[in-house]
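Problem statement: downstream parser choked on a complex file, so we are re-checking the raw output for the manganese (II) ion run. The parser issue turned out to be on our end (a line-ending mismatch), but while we're here, posting the original submission so the record is complete.
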Amino acid sequence: VEKDVKKKLYNIDVIITFSKAKDNRALQQKFEVTVDSMFKWATVPISLYIIGDDESKDLADRIIEGAAGKYNSKYTMVSLDVENLAKELHEIVKEMQPYFSYKPGAYYSDALFFLSMALHQVLPDSITNVIMLDADLKFNADIAKLYEEFYKFSDDNVMGIARENQPVYRHTFSLYRTRHHGTRVGDPPPNGLTGFNSGVLLLDLERMRSSERYNSLLTAASVKSLTTEFSFKGHLGDQDFFSLVSMAHENLFHILPCTWNRQLCEWWRDKGYQDVFDLYFKCEGHINIYHGNCNTALPVL
Ligand code: UDP
Ligand code: MN
């Protein structure tokens, strides 16, 4: 009998998008909180990949150096040719973009909002597991603990992702829901197909590469057919793709506990969903990562 031997964790590959940051002090501060708090708790060296324009990458370098220095953290910066990455990505996702975006997606750089969907195709095969993070997070735990969620994947899972903490997809799928009474589509935890938030992603790039199912879904034809089946129109980029796909193929996704992506945005609370809002928003237990989405302030820890 083959045993699942956990390899000792020597390094964690972390990708963060940080673009158009030069004249955006608020974004710079959020990014600083994200990396500062990540280093504060990290017990394993981190390889950091920053996705952004050259000016933003320079800013990121300085912020990261300062934050890591505070805690004497081990890290390496990995440089990617973002221009080239965006072009490759654009070719893969351009025909899927219109289903998940307001914008026509004329620029190569727009494709970067869909990076997580096709990262397995644009990064070298030597990179097997990646944690992809938003730049508006605050860690309250060791990222090595988050990495351990990879070990909980079942055989079909290609990525780990937390549920969306608001009734966003209850709303998006409302037409489907009225036509299919009793559906789990858009229902709250613990039994619903709630839809996802992409602020914290565990991407098993090896599984994503080898999964025939996943790659067959990552095509314009498949996306078109799913959007028709579920009367879907989105504008939230990659998380719309993962959420839509999960309605038909939930076994591709390992659901991260809400404590690893505790979204704080409450925009939907007073938009007609008062009676059900807390079914989605509730998250019990020690919060490991706070996510200040829709510009919500993060707690002082
Ligand atoms: N982002 C960026 N530059 C921008 C806007 C967004 O680099 O001008 C990146 C950043 O990593 C950010 C992510 O895109 O965390 C998603 O945006 P945001 O977190 O603001 O969306 P929300 O979580 O509020 O939906
Ligand atoms: Mn965010």
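For whoever reads this later: DSSP finds twelve helices and ten strands in the chain.
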